[in-house]
């Protein structure tokens, strides 16, 4: 089916192939939504034999729809139910997860944040780095009435933006979605609640690190050059003739930054509904679908579950889009970036 990996012969692996999770994680997801799916079964939720669908079967239908991105008709055919049942079951599952699994996507408390910072420093050398930011376009077809220019993005697709901040394990710790893909990355950032919290000193406001000359390094995240350089958002140095310390900073910054890029590639590779062109989605419902896919991504990590290795997209998660260059540099951001650059060990020092 269009370059898809063959279904694994091993039972447990085949289960993972279809639903992305182990049976144990699948049962945990069923436990989250069980009460809602039992107490409020959608109308007409009867299978061919006239019996009510079990919670497990409802969850299987919804997760297969999200994982495969296949049409409701073909998902229904695989489970012996009609298109409208797939539609109703998937939506009930999404509503329930959105309400009951929210605790799987939260900004970390200080203790957990210290752990994230230590792990990120161990892999990248960056002190006080709290995570990585990136964004991706979720492409859709819109009915003619709604096909306004707002939703038409730089690659001439209609799309909705998803911005994610991830920790050292590629777990989403903050997401923003619902905005049109026509915006720039930096505009999306500035419209986000996260930006407003950071600017108000209510996020990334944990303990500062002191470097050699009594200079302070505050908490920050890393992003690509499509983002502005801010006191709490470190972007790469740009230009032709960069000094050795600048090149060193860029290499380490990229190590941390790529976690965001890889997380989005894994998200879209696992939950193919976000990677295929979404057929006329309800734009009010699409943010819920995106959020639930992010929750499922985190639940797999929180349950110490493992995805099959070839699930992540082979290409960039936003294939076909040109890189944006923001070129906004906040003066305090520049000072902090220079302090971090001076603090970093060079690669020679590390390898000795």
Structure, described:
By secondary structure, this protein is α/β, with parallel strands linked by helices. It folds into 2 domains: 11-103, no CATH class; 105-343, no CATH class. The protein is built from 12 helices and 8 strands. The strands form 2 sheets. Strands 1, 2, 3, 6, 7 and 8 form a 6-stranded mixed sheet that branches. Strand 2 and strand 3 form a beta hairpin. The longest helix has 27 residues, at 244-270. It is globular and about 70 Å long. The N and C termini lie far apart (50 Å). The relative contact order is 0.15. The model has no long low-confidence stretch (mean pLDDT 90).
Discrete helix count = 12
Helix content: 40-55%
Number of domains: 2
Low-confidence stretches: none
Q: How can the largest sheet be summarized?
A: 6 strands, mixed
**Class by alpha and beta content:** alpha/beta
Count the E strands: 8
Q: In percent terms, what proportion of residues is strand? A: 5-15%
> What is the succession of H and E elements?
HHHHHHEEEHHEEEEHEHHH
- Mean pLDDT score: 90
| Computed Rg | 22 Å
Separation of the first and last Cα atoms = 50 Å
**Outline, from the CA principal axes?**
globular
List keywords for this structure.
alpha/beta; 6-stranded mixed sheet; 352 residues; two-stranded antiparallel sheet; globular
Write a short abstract of this structure.
The protein is 45% helix and 12% strand. α2 crosses α3.
List the helices and strands and how they pair.
Layout: H1 11-19, H2 23-39, H3 55-68, H4 72-79, H5 83-100, H6 110-124, E1 129-141, E2 158-166, E3 172-180, H7 185-191, H8 193-199, E4 209-211, E5 215-217, E6 220-222, E7 233-234, H9 244-270, E8 278-279, H10 286-302, H11 331-343, H12 347-351
Parallel strand pairs: 1-6, 1-8, 6-7
Antiparallel strand pairs: 1-2, 2-3, 4-5
Helix pairs in contact: 2-3, 2-5, 3-4, 3-5, 4-5, 5-10
């Amino acid at each position: 089916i269009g370059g898809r990996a063959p279904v694994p012969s091993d039972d447990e692996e085949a289960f993972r192939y279809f639903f992305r999770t182990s049976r144990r994680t699948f049962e945990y997801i069923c436990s989250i939504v069980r009460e809602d799916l039992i107490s409020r079964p959608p109308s007409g939720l009867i299978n061919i034999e006239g019996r009510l669908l079990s919670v497990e079967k409802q969850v299987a239908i919804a997760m297969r729809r999200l994982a495969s991105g296949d049409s409701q008709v073909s998902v229904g055919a695989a489970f012996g139910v009609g298109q409208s049942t797939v539609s109703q079951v998937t939506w009930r599952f999404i509503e329930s997860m959105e309400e009951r699994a929210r605790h799987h996507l939260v900004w970390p408390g200080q203790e957990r944040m210290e752990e994230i910072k230590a792990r990120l420093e161990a892999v990248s050398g960056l002190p006080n780095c709290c995570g990585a930011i990136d964004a991706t376009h979720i492409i859709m077809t819109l009915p003619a009435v709604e096909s306004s220019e707002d939703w038409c993005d730089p690659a001439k697709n209609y799309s909705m933006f998803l911005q994610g901040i991830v920790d050292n394990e590629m777990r989403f710790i903050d997401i923003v979605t619902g905005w049109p893909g026509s915006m720039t990355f930096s505009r999306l950032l500035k419209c986000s609640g996260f930006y407003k919290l950071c600017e108000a000193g209510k996020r990334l406001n944990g303990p500062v690190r002191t470097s050699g000359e009594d200079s302070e390094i505050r908490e920050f995240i890393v992003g690509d050059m499509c983002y502005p350089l801010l006191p709490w958002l470190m972007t790469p140095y740009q230009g032709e003739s960069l000094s050795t310390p600048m090149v060193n900073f860029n290499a380490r910054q990229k190590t941390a930054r790529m976690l965001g890029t890889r997380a989005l590639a894994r998200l879209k590779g696992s939950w193919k509904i976000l990677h295929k062109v979404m057929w006329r989605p309800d734009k009010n419902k699409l943010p819920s679908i995106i959020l639930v896919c992010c929750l499922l991504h985190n639940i797999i990590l929180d349950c110490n579950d493992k995805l099959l290795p070839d699930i992540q997209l082979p290409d960039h998660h936003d294939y076909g889009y040109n890189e944006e260059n923001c070129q906004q540099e906040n003066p305090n951001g520049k000072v902090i970036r220079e302090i971090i650059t001076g603090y970093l060990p060079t690669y020679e020092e590390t390898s000795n």
